[in-house]
């Protein structure tokens, strides 16, 4: 599996020295600009280097997201606008962000029906200012980055140390709690989109517009 390959490749670097940190930073940057499975990067970094890899992941992810937004706003604007026009869901989300302000963006950053790289480009063309964009991105993506990194680090610790049933139970409980929060947040996102646009969304795909009487 791709996740296992990423874990093995990151683990092959051994310790989180300067070269390994550079490779990890490059993967995080790539996931901010390309449809790259960054969840596997965070889990793999946790498994390979432990929680200290967050010292690389957190600042690099925030800065790379801002750079991607600036790229969309000033260099790739026409291309991003064409992509938005092709996708009804993207148009609805952009409209909701412009209408709702930072709140809908915060929910989307925590968990929304779009890959992170697509969010970077999309939010770059909204009315959100650069400083609010940076603060919302940094704060609202931090829980999932820490969580996935923790899963990787805890999984490796259990394998290496033959962890107790209590440790396994705590990891399962954390995963279940995260899944419940993701469900509630995603439902809130769909409800806001439906209220603001009159469109019913099921998962990442939105349905036909509701006829308003």
TrEMBL record:
The main location is membrane
Q: Does the keyword ATP-binding apply?
A: no
Q: What is this protein called?
A: TVP38/TMEM64 family membrane protein
The keyword Transmembrane helix is annotated on this UniProt entry: yes
Q: Which family does it belong to?
A: Belongs to the TVP38/TMEM64 family.
Q: Which InterPro entries match?
A: TMEM64, VTT_dom
For this UniProt record, the keywords arranged alphabetically read as follows: Cell membrane, Membrane, Transmembrane, Transmembrane helix
What membrane topology is annotated for this entry?
Answer: Multi-pass membrane protein
Organism of this sequence: Tardiphaga alba
- Please state where this protein is localized: Cell membrane
Q: Which residues cross the membrane?
A: 12-34, 54-76, 130-150, 170-186
Q: Which residues form the VTT domain?
A: 36-153
Enumerate the Pfam families for this protein.
Answer: VTT_dom
